[in-house]
Amino acid sequence: MMSKFLIFSALFSLVFAKPTARSMKVREAIQSVPAGYVRTGAASADTELNLRIALVQNNPEGLIDALYSVSTPDSASYGEHLSKEEAENFVAPTAQSTEAVNSWLEQAGLSAATISPAGDWLSVSVPVGQANELFDADFAVYTHSETGKQAIRTMSYSIPTELEGHLDFVHPTITFPSPISLRPVVSTPSNPGRRAIEPLASCSTSGITPDCVLSLYGIPTTKATQSSNKLGVSGFEDEFANKADLATFLNEFRPDLEGETFSLQTVDDGQNPQNASEAGLEANLDIQYTVGIASGVPVTFISVGLENKDGDLMGFLDIINFLLGESNPPQVLTTSYGFDENTISFSLANNLCNAYAQLGARGTSILFASGDGGVSGGHTSSCTDFVPVFPTSCPFVTSVGATQLTSSGGETAASFSSGGFSDYFGRQSYQTSAVSSYLAFLGSTDSGLYNTSGRAFPDVSAIGVSLEIVIEGEVELVDGTSCSSPIFASNIALINDALIAAGKSPLGFLNPFLYANPGAFHDITTGDNPGCNTNGFPATTGWDPVTGLGTPNFAALKAAAGV
Ligand SMILES: *[C@@H]1O[C@H](CO)[C@@H](O)[C@H](O)[C@H]1NC(C)=O
Ligand SMILES: *[C@@H]1O[C@H](CO)[C@@H](O)[C@H](O)[C@H]1NC(C)=O
Predict the structure, then answer these.
(1) How many CA within 13 A on the CB side of residue 551?
(2) Which residue minimizes the CA distance to atom 9 of ligand 2?
(3) Residue 282 among the catalytic residues
(4) Atom of ligand 2 nearest to the CA of 451
(5) Nearest bound ligand to the CA of residue 472
(6) pLDDT by residue, tens only, the chain of 563 residues
(7) What DSSP string describes 439-486?
(8) Using a 6 Å CB cutoff, which residues line ligand 2?
(9) Please, which residues have CB within 8 angstroms of residue 15's CB and are 6 or more apart in sequence?
(10) Atom of ligand 1 nearest to the CA of 278
């Protein structure tokens, strides 16, 4: 096997005129094969790798400064969101960088396509043999023992020293597909299985309907009026949203919204087949609790195709570049998927986080579910340190945790609600004061298990246990922060409707506004999020890493927004 592989490489170096010897520098490396994976053999030299190359952006710090100026309520330019061109100007590579990387690829007989509107991402197809030479890499086949998932990855790769400062990083290389992504936890005993539609108690620990959500948070049923206001729902992993199920859901739970539906956009040949059996629990949940809560707001389901199937974040890159390419992207985007932060290379996570900052600076509120594994992230097995979840750990998105109803009709933290502190992103000033108070309260509890200087999450929360959804014509109860993010997003979309109707800007990147208005939330002070053989973090008065600032008080949030 090994000798055959070497011969293949040698042949390839003849075919693709080996560039003159250059000095190479390791760009990214991991020390050990990620947990759960084993190297199961060399990758065939002629297998085509579809590589994405990130070029160095010319002024990412300038972008973040601009993001804060338009998103911080007491700033003079609050609400003056950037145009598409203004945002792109910060992240476009310099002409020298584009030229240097393209001519290096051309010398190797390769031609790259530009895949982001600012020109900071290239895509190139390269056979494994040639990729190994170009990047001093060792692409091999790795198999995930539990799931059987296979991927071609390398433990390290290098770039020519003369491309330093031009070529930022390459994906997929050292970031292995995450075998787990966030999905609704459909757990017993709260999930008694599917049952026929019948009149139900609207607000009890054994079932939460849209009416219950509306009354908990004081959300009006009045229909939104602004057709330019959009709420986007990300769809991944062949999760499809079914229109007939939505119609049944509205007919049962929001008859006043009968006839409301959603529109579809597709990325990477994404689809949304309507056969009843193809309906996905996650996609139906996300659509039913946006269309059914954000009364009258135009909702778009954005279905990302097969490329994300191996969980390699390609789909996450592609959906964000797709939206950045739009002149009028949705003003709110909710995503109920995520990964353990430590399974993603820092460069990739940082680049994606920066892409969310671009969209935020343009006026989009980006919400992510915080994760369903308590302090253990997506881990089902043991963990020694708490595991943060990405993209929710990116400081430029709004992270949404989950609560559950108590028997007295109040809310307490849902024990699966992920929260904690990023190991990649530092704490931002908008949350310094809230988090410092919490850390003072926490004292030595959980000491050493989390990063005291990291970006803390979630930012907010919403109900996420025993939500009634319709799937294949029947009712099923679902749990998860996957319920909470669409609900919080719907509150923001309705406030945006009022803002736009009043001739004002939509809220855009939310966090500075949210932390400046802690009184606009129902503070959740009980419960915790166990994991990693600990009780996790306790919820308490004020912000906490289980329920954030709390659940929305719609009228107070709307008033804080000035409408
Ligand atoms: C869904 O419907 C299409 C066309 O109506 C059909 O070709 C396909 O086989 C169906 N898929 C399933 C899983 O039933
Ligand atoms: C903790 O977070 C800081 C800020 O993001 C980071 O620089 C540091 O590397 C993190 N420490 C660990 C052990 O991950």
Answers:
(1) 28
(2) 423
(3) yes
(4) 1
(5) 1
(6) 333 333 333 334 444 444 555 799 999 999 999 888 999 999 999 999 999 999 999 999 999 999 999 999 999 999 999 999 999 999 999 999 999 999 999 999 999 999 999 999 999 999 999 999 999 999 999 999 988 888 999 999 999 999 999 999 999 999 998 776 655 545 444 566 777 777 666 788 889 999 999 999 999 999 999 999 999 999 988 899 999 999 999 999 999 999 999 999 999 999 999 999 999 999 999 999 999 999 999 999 999 986 655 556 888 999 999 999 999 999 999 999 888 898 899 999 999 999 999 999 999 999 999 999 999 987 665 788 999 999 999 999 999 999 999 999 999 999 999 999 999 999 999 999 999 999 999 999 999 999 999 999 999 999 999 999 999 999 999 999 999 999 999 999 999 999 999 999 999 999 999 999 999 999 999 999 999 999 999 999 999 999 999 999 999 999 999 99
(7) HHHHTTTTTTSS-TTEEEE-SEEEE-SSEEEEETTEEEEEBSHHHHHH
(8) 423, 425-426, 451, 453-454
(9) none
(10) 13
Strands (E), 30-174: 37-42, 48-55, 113-114, 121-127, 140-144, 150-153, 156-160, 167-171
> What three-state secondary structure class fits 505?
coil
Query: Strand 365-369 relative to strand 332-335: parallel, antiparallel, unpaired?
Result: parallel
Ligand nearest to the CA of 427: 2
Residues of the chain with CATH 3.40.50.200: 206-560
Please provide the distance, in angstroms rounded to a whole number, between the alpha carbons at the two ends of the chain: 68
Query: Reading across the β-sheet that carries 37-42, which strands appear in turn?
Result: 37-42, 140-144, 150-153
pLDDT in tens, 387-403: 999 999 999 999 999 99
Residue with tokens 């600032």: 549
* Residues contacting residue 150 through CB under 8 Å, at least 6 positions apart: 40, 141, 142, 143, 144
Q: Is 542 annotated as a binding residue?
A: yes
CB-based contact 373:418 (threshold 8 Å): yes
Could you tell me the distance, in angstroms and rounded to a whole number, from the CA of residue 333 to the centre of ligand 2? 28
3 state SS of 202:
coil
pTM value is: 0.93
What are residue 72's DSSP bridge partners? none
Round to whole Å and give the CA distance between 393 and 458. 8
**Token pair in block for residue 284:** 């139906």
Was 446 annotated as part of a binding site? no
CATH class of 206-560: alpha beta
Query: Which protein residue has the closest C-alpha to ligand 2 atom 5?
Result: 426
524 is in an annotated binding site: yes
The answer to whether 80 is a known catalytic residue is no
- Cβ(329)–Cβ(322) below 8 Å: no
Length of the chain: 563
335-350 burial, b at 16+ Cβ within 10 Å, e below that, comes to: bbbbbbbbbbbebbbb
